[in-house]
Amino acid sequence: MSNIFFTADTHMGHAKIIEYCSRPFTGSVEMDEGLISNWNAIVKPEDLTFHLGDFSFKPANYRHKLNGKIILIRGNHDSRKTDNLFDKVINKLELNIGKYKCFLSHRPGEIFAQIGLNNFLLGNPLCNIGSNFDYYINGHVHNIWKVKEKNINVGIDVWNMKPVPIEDLIKLMDERYEETKLIEYKTNIFEEFEEDRKDRILSTPGAKL
After folding, report:
1. What's the domain range around 95?
2. Quick check: 103 and 136 in contact, CB under 8 A?
3. What is the domain count for the chain?
4. Is the pLDDT of residue 127 over 90?
5. Do 5 and 163 touch, CB atoms closer than 8 A?
6. In the chain, which ranges are continuous DSSP H helix?
7. Residue 25 domain-assigned?
8. By the 8 A CB rule, do 155 and 189 touch?
9. What angle do CA 148, 74, 112 make, to 5 degrees?
10. 15, 96, 101, 190: which has the highest count of C-beta atoms within 10 A?
11. Mean predicted confidence (pLDDT) in 121-141
12. In this structure, are residues 92 and 104 in contact, taking their beta carbons and an 8 Å threshold?
């Protein structure tokens, strides 16, 4: 029987991400070995993982080392030149997870279809998108937050450096549903994240935006 997992922001081979996100590794080699070991300890060859972006700058060095099928939801650091390494590559996905209608994308609440690409490029990705979905599943924010309003971050930085089993994700949704079901977005979560990101990077010696 196959299982389903969700993850994001592995950034394999990216040494500076250890500093940026306070990852528990001493260097990129240790990080890569740890992430691969954590992945393969729970993801079996017959399993499916939805990776919500920022897999690696050099995915060819790592994809073959990871168990299971991977559907990549493209992140801002994922090149189209390596799409062939994955079982499928898409920009966004509507998916029923348990009883919940979910929208999956790399950035939180990134909704090209609902508000249009021009609005997104103007910096308004979360403008009054209403309650079309029960949850918005994302990556991109690393260790800034795990849950915020209807957004759930499945990035490894808030899930113990491991992919998230679908059962754990549904459990979290169940726990939050009464609190989130009436929420309509009126704040720009992405904008808040970008400001926080700039503050964190600028506080890192030698770091650049």
Report:
1. 4-202
2. yes
3. 1
4. no
5. yes
6. 16-21, 28-42, 112-115, 117-121, 166-180, 189-202
7. yes
8. no
9. 65
10. 190
11. 66
12. yes
**C-alpha to C-alpha distances, 30 to 12, 99, 100, nearest whole angstrom:** 10, 38, 37
Helix, strand or coil, per DSSP, at residue 74:
coil
Structure confidence at residue 123 (pLDDT): 45
Q: Are 201 and 208 in contact (CB under 8 A)?
A: yes
Bridge partners (DSSP) of residue 152 are: 137, 147
* DSSP H or E run through 120: helix 117-121
Neighbour-count burial for 169-202, b at 16+ CB within 10 Å, e otherwise: beebbeebeeebeeeebeebbbebbbeebeebee
Instruction: Name which of 104, 50, 57 is nearest 78 in CA terms.
Output: 57
Per the structure block, which two tokens stand in for 180? Answer: 């989130």
Provide φ and ψ at 204, rounded to 5°. Answer: -90, 125
- Residue 26's domain is classified under what CATH number? 3.60.21.10
pLDDT digits (tens, 9 = 90+) for 21-56: 999 999 999 999 999 999 999 999 999 999 999 999
The reported pLDDT for the residue numbered 114 is: 45
Residue with tokens 């559907």: 71
Residue with tokens 């209403």: 130
Averaged pLDDT, 124-134: 55
Q: Which of 75-84, 96-105, 130-139 has the lowest mean pLDDT?
A: 130-139
Which backbone phi and psi does 178 adopt, to 5 degrees? -60, -30
pLDDT tens by residue, 48-95: 999 999 999 999 999 999 999 999 999 989 989 999 999 999 998 999
Q: At 12, phi and psi to the nearest 5?
A: -60, 140
